[in-house]
Amino acid sequence: MAGAAAKPWWRETIETIVWAFVLAMIIRTFIVQAFWIPSGSMIPTLEVGDRVLVAKFWNWFFPPSRGALYVFRYPVDRDRDFVKRVIAVPGDIVDIRDGVVYINNEPTDEPYVKYHDHFTLQAGRPYKEVPFTVPEGHYFMLGDNRPNSQDGRFWGLVSTADLHGPVFFRYWPLTRIGIPGWGSEAPEASR
Hints:
By secondary structure, the chain is of the alpha+beta class. It has a single domain (33-176), classed as Umud Fragment, subunit A (Ribbon). It is built from 3 helices and 11 strands; from the N terminus they run H-E-E-H-E-E-E-E-E-E-E-H-E-E. The strands form 2 sheets. A 7-stranded antiparallel sheet has the order 1-2-11-3-4-9-10. It has a 4-stranded antiparallel sheet with strand order 7-6-5-8, with no helix packed on it. The N and C termini lie far apart (64 Å).
């Protein structure tokens, strides 16, 4: 019985490299992607230089929940990615007065915000009315370092289509490895 002819070593190597590349692209596009944190807008939750993993598949199964950290395409420049915290979900009524965020007319408890400001949301750009209701398919996002965060207060809402996924793990630096931003709580699967 004649066996199949063995492939030359160079062909085996090329096929292995091609399949590894295809698999890596599938994983990066649909499952998990690494991101680097370039600014201090999320201090102290995420520091400059932190590296995090994002679950790109998560939104297929669960809608974003309040308090989750998400990476998304920056609405003003879609070639850039931002990371912020989901503050309000579709249907929520949002207002900010003297640095206090109100969701559905109730002040929010934000233990992750260590640096506060005295920002008050005003009607105009980007919101025609204040308070405003978050429409279906959109989310209101803020940075944890409020005085130094370019966020939804200034450029508006983030579309569901622009969400890459939630941050679920910080892998660098090794001294801060773990699940960032949740404290002792795990992310909720729903609102």
